[in-house]
Amino acid sequence: MSDSIPNLGGGSRIYAVFGDPVAQVQTPTLINPLFAARSLDLYAVPFHVTRENFEATWGVFAAMDNVAGIGVTVPHKIAAARLCDELTPAAAAVGAVNSIQRRIDGSMYGALFDGLGFVGGLAANRSRLAGASVMLVGAGGAGRAIAHALSGEQIGRLSVIDLDEDALQFTIGMVNREMGGPLAQRGSDDLAGIDVLINATPIGLKSADAFPVDLRDLNSEMLVADIAALSRDTELLKLARARGAATSDGRDMLEAQIALIAGFAAGGEAGTPL
């Protein structure tokens, strides 16, 4: 730690990262080099905060003037959104946050960068979203955030698959409100006519045979994204690459999201990378 933050002192500011557990969280490792590269006296530090102690811990950190903000991961994203004084449009629509900026007056401004990180991580492939027929597998927290971001990318249609009926209907309704029309719908297991396939569940870590979509029509004209792929390729991405499809993985999303979180933690506007 002394090698990574040699200049930590009384004037330093802290970006606290809350999780339960927190040992696996990559945010401090990835974001501190970005702060250092800009010569910012700002450091991300992980804290193991349980559900039971979350609200009390939040109050303590929100009261400290040298706290620049708080990052939250599972299971705190929804609870943190409820405690924020203000939310970005994406965070308000989804009902969750993953980064909170502590303003000078002590108010807490919550943002959700999962969706923006996903579309940003597509890089040049982001242009393929315009007018595309998109299938999204997974309407949990990350899936909802991605769906919200897709609604701002002028997609042609969104098909959503999830076993949780409430999550499915929430996501479809949210997207249709954002897009001003019935462009989101319940998806089927048929890839015919689909231009972009997105997996926002852990299913991709298992055999491609377990995937709830018939992959026989997966082809070289498609874009396939699997956010479950971080340390290794998933079976879904292996198949997509074997078929010649363009691909994006969870590392693309994470790197883009970290840049956005860093900018926000440093006091910038939501959506502006550091």
Topology:
Elements (H helix, E strand, L loop, with lengths): L12 E7 L7 H11 L4 E7 L5 H9 L4 E6 L4 H7 L2 E2 L1 H6 L4 E4 L5 E4 L2 H8 L11 E5 L3 H10 L6 E5 L3 H15 L4 E3 L9 E4 L23 E4 L8 H8 L3 E4 H16 L9
Parallel strand pairs: 1-2, 1-3, 4-6, 7-8, 7-10, 8-9, 10-11, 11-12
Antiparallel strand pairs: 3-5, 5-6
Helix pairs in contact: 1-9, 5-6, 5-9, 6-7
Explain the overall architecture.
It is a single chain. This protein is 33% helix and 20% strand. With 274 residues, the protein is of the alpha/beta class. The protein has 2 domains: 13-112, Leucine Dehydrogenase, chain A, domain 1 (Rossmann fold); 116-248, NAD(P)-binding Rossmann-like Domain (Rossmann fold), CATH 3.40.50. A 6-stranded mixed β-sheet has the order 2-1-3-5-6-4, sandwiched between helices. A 6-stranded parallel β-sheet has the order 9-8-7-10-11-12, with helices on both faces. The longest helix is centred in the C-terminal third of the chain and has 16 residues, at 250-265. The model has no long low-confidence stretch (mean pLDDT 93).
